[in-house]
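Board work, copied verbatim: Response regulator transcription factor
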Amino acid sequence: MKYLIAEDEIDLQQSIVTYLQRDGNICEVASNFEEASEKVSIYDYDAIILDINLISGSGLDVLKIIKKEKKRAGVIIISANNSLTDKLQGLDLGADDYITKPFHLAELNSRIKAVLRRGKYGGDEIMVFNEIKIDTKSRTAYINHKAIALTRKEYDLLVFFISNKGRVLSKEIIAEYLWGDDSDLLDNFCFIYVHINNLRKKLTAEGAKYIKTAYGSGYKFIED
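↓ predict structure ↓
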């Protein structure tokens, strides 16, 4: 999964990043309002952890941008303010959850997973697309009920495809999703072809048929 942590308390920001990266997640950070606004406008995330009191602006205004841009990321607001008014305002604007500082990182992680289950997996921990099934809790993919061994990147790529089925995904978007900010350091995106080719082989013909090449544009995951 790919997360954005928009938090101006650097120690807390890095603690959240370290905790979430233990499960192999890609974590990007924003330390002020401008960074957060730019990143939510340009990039796609599975979940956004959003401080309500960012330097130079309000996290609620970032939330308004997320909703205006119709982003599909789950949003969890974190705040030192425990006022009912702020909670209601955040939730009314479309946040999926609200947690008050200080909090345990394990609790934040559980809330992120709950938001992802509700938003991406229809309240379940299992994603199903025809012959393909993904157990998001164990990070295991199946083709016709037979488990297949995917690398971490291949697994994330498959989840990204199914979560965005019907949408053309450019190599730039795929690279940014899989590598986050590090994708800016890449000289080319040839390795995307390698990962997709390997994923197609492991899905066998029965699953690979859904990954279509959109010539000159990227790739699209659609019904055969």
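The CA atoms of residues 149 and 202 lie 8 Å apart.
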